[in-house]
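Summary for the funding panel

The consortium committed to producing paired sequence-structure records for every protein in the target list. Below we show the first two records in order, beginning with the earlier of the two.
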Amino acid sequence: MKNILAFFSFFILLSNFSFAQIGIGTNVVDGSAILEIESTDKGVLLPRMTEAEKLAIVSPATGLTIYQTDSVNGFYYFNGSGWNPLAGVQPAIEKTSNDGYRFVGSPRAVGNNAIDFSLVEGVPSGTYGARNNNAVAIGNGVLASNTNTVAIGYLNTSSGDRSVSFGSNNTSSALNSTSIGYDNNAAGTGSLAAGTNNQAFQDNSVALGMDNIASGNANVSIGTNNTTSSIDAISIGENNQNIGFYSVVIGRDNNNETENTYMLGEGLFTFGGTPNQTVVGFYNSPTGPGTFSVGNGTSDTSRSTALSVSSTGTIIAPDLDISEITDNKALITKEYADATYAATTSNAVSFTTVSSFGPNFSPYNNGWQIPRFYIQDGRVYLEGLARRSNAVFVSGETILTLPTGFRPQSNRIFTAGQSGNQLRVDVYPDGRVVYINGTDGGNDYVSLDNVSFRID
């Protein structure tokens, strides 16, 4: 009988607990709570663990709560997909005793007047944060370790005084250096590296774009895969190499080894020890010092130079097409001039004797130059003495007529000569050489030596 009573008593008590509330430290439990704990000198202690231990929990239930003891410590709860601090997605901010700012609970020291809004989630172990006066560190795994430095983004480091780094994996390690983008390194005083994987190693150097290197003082590399490694050198474009002091290279696949050189084009090249060059065009054949040259090659194995001017003024143009020179003032090579204008019998000026005189004129003869003409560089020259049948010159009469190809484009006026006298002689587009006026002084001749005109 006693056993039966004990069984029923236990069953009734168990049923009451199934529907009742639990109070610890209090007899009155709030109606909305299944458990109420009341104390004025003790608290509730939840499970404490490291971040690694937290992440190792297998299949955590939604709402599971723990206290994390390392990294950014504090209460964390599992929301069904990940762990979050109870204060929100990001920790709260607090002001430090030295007028700095950091996330609440951050164990890192902060410099005077510094701002440290950095995290160390999933980054390699090391020193992070705003560790010096007036420094700013914002992001994950960032370090601003010198005075007045700024590091913003992911795994950026600013260690030079007044240095700045923005983006990801950038380093600014010198005074006033700046790195912006991804994986850039500004290591020289006042240097700038911006873009992707650029290196500015020396003072006042600049590397902008992708895979550029500026390794000399005041060097500039802009574009893709350019390198400058001297002093005050500039490379702009793609795949250019410039090791010449005070030189500029613009284009692609160019290589300069000389100082004071300017290069513009593709595939151009200069030898070391030949300074003061200006090279333009494509795939030139390197020439001597102090030259201006134009390359007209097609590849690295097929180089040629269309035009080269030396420091002494010598012009070399081995590939110039002489047949296309039609202007008498066109630039020609010394080789062509020697071959064309040399003072030899075969290349001497060719004279043509006048064969068409006016009715009252003829050659003077008696040992005097017979009237003749020639053309040189697009200009017609007349010379010789013409005699009139008597000394009475008549205005408008024809002295002689020039053949086609030796005539001016428009009317021309000239002064013809006699002994101490001057005569006006006109030449017309139809080839007529005509006496107009002047004092004949009783002379029966006229000199044509001053008559010369262009035919174009």
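The next record, for a separate protein in the list, is shown here:
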Amino acid sequence: MTLIVAISNSSAAGIVAYEGFEYVSGSTMNGQGNSSMGWSGAWSPTPFNATINDDLIAAGTSLGFGSLGTLGGSVLGTSQTAISGLVRNFATPFGQTNETFYMSVLLRPESNAGTGFLGNYFGLTFETSANDPELFIGRPGSADTWSLERRGGGLLVSSGVTATTGRTDLLVVRADLSANSDVFRLYVNPQLGAAEPAQAVPLTLLNLGVISGIGLYYTGGFAVDEIRVGTTFSSVTAVPEAGFPVLLFATLAAAVGRRGRR
């Protein structure tokens, strides 16, 4: 499969992992991974305490967000009566040295907050080998706003932006990792193609250690698309630019190689 995305060379240079969810519509995400780069393997079980692993289903259309470059797919998860999700590990984990990285993702609520099992929470986690502490990014069970939270509850910091059912929002997380503590900042719907905003929602956690991958973690219905991980804010919020098509897989392969040799 050849994946070409029209994106500026300068922006693509900072991307180290990408998932556009361009899979056969109706297929389960468990075991998938061909339309992406920068990971060590496919989506697989299991985030912390998740017992349902086959509910995440590929959809045939992208969520879309303004002028953000997207592929043709997304993924849907339905409300469950138990913790659900999948994990995907990075080709090169983060946190082995002091470093900063960014992650962006498109999320759309498909369930109402505060109802259902554990409040219909959904979002992404930064997975660690120790399982605790871990960072949760999304709509928690105890609030209806996009938030950062220690996975499992506690230390919740809200963005103040309501996660509205049926509306797609762009979430960008900045992670500043150090030996003593890790600081995370959340931006909701930042201006595409602009500089990193001066203001963000900060959350300081004890050192997470090595961040090995990303989890899709939920009990409430939601849709997810366009996971980007990069070394700069611009790399995960890039706007396609006519005349600058690049082979994204080639860019990612080079970036992963550089990180692996550091």
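Regarding this second record: The chain has a mean pLDDT of 86. The longest strand covers residues 84-94.
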